[in-house]
Write a structure and sequence with these properties.
2% helix; Jelly Rolls; 337 residues; seven-stranded antiparallel β-sheet; mainly beta; 24 strands; 2 domains
Length: 337
């Protein structure tokens, strides 16, 4: 049995669609499939990636990015020699290019944003806190008004997580009061079984409708209550507490313990005012227009997936104000049994 075009499926990044905040701009693979049409020799996606160009974008110019995932859903066969290219150009003056960062399959590319403003950033480090039989929550504690998130409305969180063993159940991310346990905002969940076991990966949680402010004594908690000594979640942390007015805390039983020399690795965002995006780090963009110039993605084992990026370059004074993504085509050469 060989792999058919229908075995290759494309998914948005994050828990989003093309209409999501800023579009599908990185993060983990979502459960939302990009609408696709199967054709002889491959799969295409058309008009399902970028939002229509606005009048302001057509007038002023803009570069937009989108991160998608290609997944092999075949039960037993590896997809090899995977090609992706543009099979038609956009009808307007904007240009679509395709890029691949070279990360391993199942990698999780970082989130970009042109509609959110970053107010907290701690890069990935090697230290971690385990959510196991003892520690049930790890959180970012707002200890003073000097914290960069104080008085702001946080709508999106990113944390570096990794699983050990075979944890099951649900990871919750919430904004709570330290003493009263009141939940101010619930940023969503992550199935513990789907967290990467190969390396720490970045996971996105968001509450776009959040209107509450951050106060002193608030904690942004990563909660996993079913961990044990062999099946648990690692929450990555950086030593030295690089962010003033905030630090890591642990909860065991009914007690919070200050870990004042650490901060949680990740980022936090408030709603921003838009603007130009920063290109995703390490991605080389090309303009593949046929099979000969196509970008080759890594071989994908059954169930594996890999991220790739699209760049939409809209020149200033563009005459086309309703244009969308050009058609992309995917082709795979499958091994015979």
């Amino acid at each position: 049995m060989v792999i058919a075009p229908t075995d290759l499926k494309v998914y948005y990044s994050g828990s989003t669609t093309k209409s999501g905040p800023g579009g599908a701009q990185g993060g983990v693979i979502s459960t939302v499939q990009v609408p696709a049409q199967t054709i002889a020799g491959g799969v295409t996606i058309d008009n399902t990636v970028f939002e229509d160009i606005t009048n302001a974008e057509a007038m002023n110019g803009k570069i937009r990015y989108c991160c998608l995932y290609l997944k092999n859903t075949h039960a037993t066969q590896t997809a090899s020699d995977i090609k992706v290219w543009q099979s038609s150009i956009t009808p307007g003056q904007d240009a679509i290019r395709i890029g691949y960062s070279g990360v391993a399959a199942n990698g999780h590319d970082p989130l970009l944003s042109d509609v959110h403003t970053q107010v907290y950033n701690v890069p990935l480090s090697t230290s971690f806190s385990p959510l196991n039989e003892t520690i049930k929550r790890a959180g970012l504690y707002v200890s003073s008004q000097s914290a960069p998130v104080y008085g702001k409305t946080i709508i999106r969180l990113e944390f570096w997580l990794k699983k050990v063993g075979s944890p099951t159940g649900t990871i919750n991310v919430r904004q709570r009061k330290r003493d009263s346990e009141t939940i101010h905002s619930d940023y969503g969940t992550q199935n513990a079984a789907t967290v990467s076991s190969d390396a720490p990966s970045l996971y996105v949680f968001q509450d776009l409708a959040n209107t509450g402010f951050v106060h002193v004594e608030d904690i942004f908690t990563i909660e996993y209550t079913t961990g044990n000594a062999t099946n648990y979640i690692e929450v990555y942390r950086a030593a030295g507490s690089p962010v003033g007015g905030m630090h890591l805390v642990h909860r065991s039983g009914t007690q919070w313990t200050n870990m004042a020399d650490f901060d949680v690795c990740g980022r936090m965002f408030i709603a921003g005012q838009g603007g130009s995006q920063t290109a995703p780090t390490g991605v080389t963009f090309e303009n593949p227009t046929n099979l000969e110039t196509a970008i080759t993605l890594p071989n994908l084992a059954p169930g594996a997936f890999v991220p790739f990026w699209l760049e939409n370059n809209i020149p200033a004074n563009s005459s086309n104000r309703l244009n969308n993504s050009s058609e992309l085509r995917f082709r795979v050469v499958s091994p015979t049994p």
